[in-house]
Amino acid sequence: MKRKKLLKQGACIAVCSTMLATGVTQLIPAYQAQSLVFADEVQQNIKKTTYTADKLTVDWGNAGYELTDGVWKVTFNNQYDQVKWRLPETVDMSTVKSVTFNVKDQKGSVSLKVYKNGDEDADGANTKYELTGADEYSISPTGEGDMVAVGLMTTDNAGSGSAISLVSVTVETDTTPKTPPEIEQNIEDWKKSVTSSDALGENAIAGTGIMLDEIKDNTLMDLVEKHFNAVTFGNELKPDALFNYQLEKSVKTKTVQFDGQDLEVPMVNDAGDSLDFSRADAMVDKILEWNAAHPDRKIRIRGHVLVWHSQTPEWFFHENYDISKPYVDKETMNRRLEWYISSVFDHYFGEAANKKYDGLFYGWDVVNEAVIGNTYRTDTVSPAESLDEIRHGNNSSWWHVYKSNEFIINAFKYANKYAPSDVELYYNDFGETDNIKSEGIIKLISDVKSAQGTRLDAFGMQAHYSVDSFSAAQFKTVAKKYAEAAGKVQLTELDFQASAAYKSGAASKESEYTKMAYCHKQLFDAAKDLKKNGTNVAGITVWGVIEPNSWLHSQSNVGGGADGSKQCPLLFDGKYKAKPAYWAYVDATKLEPLIQDIVVAEQKGDTMSGTEYSFSDDDTQAAFIPTWDKDGLNVLVSVKDATINDTDEVTVYVDETNSAGDVTPVKKTVKRSEAQAVDGGYRATIKVPMTDLKVAKTIGMDVKVMNNDKAVSFNDLKEMQETSSKYYAKATLKPGIEKATKATVKIDGEADSEWDKAVAIPLTINLGAKVTADAKVLWDDENLYVYATVKDPVLNKDGGEAYQQDSLEVFIDENNAKTESYDDDDKQYRINYENEHSFNGKKCLEENVQSAAKVTGDGYVIEAAFKWTDIKPKKGDRIGLEFQINDADASGARIGTLSWNDETGMGWSKSSVYGTIELAAEAKDEVSDDNSKPGTDDPSTGNTEKPGTNNSSTGNTEKPGTGKPAINKPSADKPATGSTNKPLANKPAAKKAAKTSDQSATAAFIVLFLAGVSMAGASRLRRSRKQS
């Protein structure tokens, strides 16, 4: 529900909101298509259009404003008070040279704002601050899309008496004719791939989101008509649009007969209508026109949305439709709700419609984004946001009236009562891959389906995901659960937020396009696999047509969120051409090699212990384990090649700065004759000298094996390693395995003498935090103990979401399975500086944690004991462990995190990003000359860690991986934010697995490897990863 730019307008009209920590069907900003001027049109080069004050409509304002004597008189009572006016028409931003505000009666300073479609607020480039002393002020705005509104704001302090009168706004545009763009008619229709028999089937929805202004863009509509069989309107069927964007604090009313009784209803236009369908009907008529001309290629419509906490005017919940009056009671609200739903459906399906729209609508979102965490969205989700505002952010006025889910149940009752039986009824939500939120969504679905008189046919997975955090495994897990609960699922608002590393420039765009394409490929493969195995995945709708129109370009705090950074989330670019993401569905062999992300563990002592990566083609199989120390990179490479040739060799390439460009790489080659011979092949340990290595540093690296005259590479399939690191894998240096001493402590926030036996583990992976921290770990038969010291000059817990508050998070994976989604033993504990708890994980319960927090002169300390739930711990066992410090600023917003091992922030959804702790004996039992050094295995035990085990006598084995992706928008529903499930290998059949291997057990590893372990598959190049 977010068309987010496209679809969720901020002010309802222009707002949307995260996709990572929260989510929501974002307000689809009226997506304005780029205006086109054709060569045969005669227009002046420069055009000036003046809009007088009476032509400017207030969209939103928290300052005082009044239209008097033909001018808007504005009084600013507080700092940052402002007023936003909608223009009477949209203007293509690419043609705008300047916007001039004509003003008078100014007191104090004023700031100018220009809003693009979808903007909740104007960005910095389109804001001009603190102007005084003139009667005209001009700004030259920039950006793609359409200009839709202007605003005035003051930065003067409260009580300064600032004021101004707006007389008019003049927009100067360059109307030089432009050549109309064309689409690629010679490529396959995207919908054919989605609806093929080996994908989602011929009845599947292959849809997109569109906005009213986009239907004026003939080239964009050419894309819609060629590639999609369904559309969702971004804003035009939402309550605020049907109420004609009456965003004042009250509206005029009239009395009608409804269900045999008088009912007061609003009047929202000059004709006295209670609902204004003009915008929606203009779009519906466009689709009907196409369908009439192309009966064999009809496009259907998804109605979006009836009940939503956002983009519903606040006056709808008050007596006499006036915010200054009290809220109505539940009985009155029930009548209003039923009247509203019946009126919408009567317009399209009633007698007056005369069957004009029969068969056109395939489904309707009845309720949108009513879940936060594992429960219902209430009226106090974000304490800082007021329901008195026209747009109430994350809080629900529906809940404020009902104090229960009654309005949700009733919405589905009324929808069932008035909708045709062939129109499917949906619940739709974002953040749906979060484990905790999935529980809340399934509860809502169950509550609705079990209520008398309701109908809920399917669940809409909004699918606002992130390149940095998407997990196909997690997606599959939750999609299966939702389909079992609701009957079927559909992906309803698909887009991918760009990675945090995405920057401007052609090279960065090419890399990001490839990453995003592989995310789409993984998602599509997962959806096809679900369908093949009986899960009803009924369609995919992409949230927008062309790149510049995506809601993700604009900052928004609705529906999961968007930070306004550069994005490339859709299938087609601003020139209406197919991107690699399109080819991910149609022909994935056309994709560029994927830059894989690999982990290089710190080597402690002489034993190599790390993650094994394997790759192969039809004739050659190879695997390598990379580690690092202060002297450089160490790579243990094993090759299966039964035929000896003089040219057999293996080369490691390194780009120390990970420049991903033209380089003279650091490389080391070992010929087969110089390596150690093993049965069926050879192995070599290659040392690449390097300096200044540290945790979280990234380097580029690749491994190439020559089998006679044939090259096989891990990442660069184009074999350009000698001159370019463009296709090197991205290698991130991680901490090695730490040891935890056995000891028991009292949990009181004091560092007693037992803690002297523990090593302080520094947290050094900083993602924007302004703190420092370290943590110590101990263990005994009952508990894992943690003592964390955090230096933080500003402590704050005002954030409405627990993850936004200053706090420590401890992630525990008892069986060290390192899975891509949570197993039953995986836990996320959060403890803030005032010792308040929050949890994520089936066994992550209050009863399993005891903690104490103490504020210090420069921060805080937290001491905690976490009960073992799945293993009987003993010396030598390894567990997955991660620490994360959440850092809030004085406003209560989280500004960053500090972690030990995980640079992705994805510990809330998968244990594969955790570090590893080895349980050691009591300090008095340690032997100084023990061959087992910190972070290594004890050679005498033959300890070789296998996937999903912890080397314990309990017989713990790997649990089936669940799966779950997350939207990366700051989201109230997310246990934590972060990014990333890294894309899979370059070829469609590529694989990844996980396992840790030690040099002390290398022989065993080689035997297994040469026997073909993890080499299944028949693609030209296969890859896998085995993690500890």
Features:
1028 residues; alpha+beta; TIM Barrel; Jelly Rolls; Immunoglobulin-like; 13-stranded mixed β-sheet; 13 helices; hydrolase; GH10; EC 3.2.1.8; GH; endo-1,4-beta-xylanase activity
In short:
This protein is 15% helix and 32% strand. It has 1028 residues and is an alpha+beta fold.
SSE topology:
Elements: H1 4-7, E1 46-52, E2 57-61, E3 64-68, E4 71-75, E5 82-92, E6 96-107, E7 110-116, E8 127-131, E9 136-139, E10 146-153, E11 163-174, H2 190-194, E12 205-210, H3 218-227, E13 230-233, H4 239-242, E14 252-258, E15 261-267, H5 278-293, E16 300-308, H6 330-349, E17 361-368, E18 371-372, E19 375-376, H7 397-402, H8 406-418, E20 424-429, H9 435-450, E21 458-461, E22 464-466, H10 472-486, E23 489-497, H11 506-532, E24 537-542, E25 555-556, E26 562-563, H12 580-586, E27 597-602, E28 609-616, E29 621-629, E30 632-640, E31 649-655, E32 666-671, E33 676-678, E34 681-689, E35 698-707, E36 710-713, E37 729-734, E38 738-742, E39 761-763, E40 765-767, E41 772-779, E42 783-791, E43 807-813, E44 826-832, E45 837-840, E46 849-856, E47 859-867, E48 878-888, E49 894-899, E50 915-922, E51 996-998, H13 1002-1010, E52 1022-1026
Parallel strand pairs: 12-13, 12-24, 13-16, 16-17, 17-20, 20-21, 21-23, 22-23, 23-24, 27-29, 27-37, 38-41, 38-50
Antiparallel strand pairs: 1-11, 2-5, 3-4, 4-11, 5-10, 6-9, 6-11, 7-8, 7-10, 14-15, 18-19, 25-26, 28-29, 28-51, 28-52, 29-30, 30-34, 31-32, 31-35, 33-34, 35-36, 35-37, 39-41, 40-49, 41-42, 42-47, 43-44, 43-48, 44-45, 46-47, 48-49, 48-50
Helix pairs in contact: 6-8, 9-10, 10-11, 11-12
Pfam families: CBM9_1 (PF06452), Glyco_hydro_10 (PF00331)
GO molecular function: carbohydrate binding; endo-1,4-beta-xylanase activity
Biased composition (Polar residues): 938-959
